[in-house]
Amino acid sequence: MKCPFCNLEMMEGYLKAGRYVQFQEMENGRKGNQYLVAKSFMGDAKMEGYLCPSCRKVILDIPLVEEPPKR
């Protein structure tokens, strides 16, 4: 896959974390909504995606998680 920022080839792989991967929204410099992006009961949450080592950007495929957003 070509990087949409620098047009160089990206590395395919996955981002791994502990049990949960969460996204914290920022609203006017303060914490907003918190979204559960990935979870694993065994403590090895993974999200497939691409990494551009040149411009240091990551593009991830976010799996469906059966939990509503948290506030």
Compact description:
The chain has 71 residues and is mainly β. It is 0% helix and 49% strand. The mean pLDDT is 87.
SSE inventory with pairings:
Blueprint: E1 11-16, E2 20-27, E3 30-39, E4 46-52, E5 57-60
Antiparallel strand pairs: 1-4, 2-3, 4-5
How would you describe what is shown here?
Helix content is 0%, strand content 49%. The strands form 2 sheets. Strands 1-4-5 form a 3-stranded antiparallel beta sheet, with no helix packed on it. A hairpin with a 4-residue loop joins β4 (46-52) and β5. It is mainly beta. It starts with 10 loop residues before the first strand and ends in an 11-residue tail after the last strand. The model has no long low-confidence stretch (mean pLDDT 87).
| Major sheet | 3 strands, antiparallel
Q: How many domain units?
A: 1
Shape assignment: flat
**What's the oligomerization state?**
single chain
Helix content range: under 10%
* Computed Rg: 14 Å
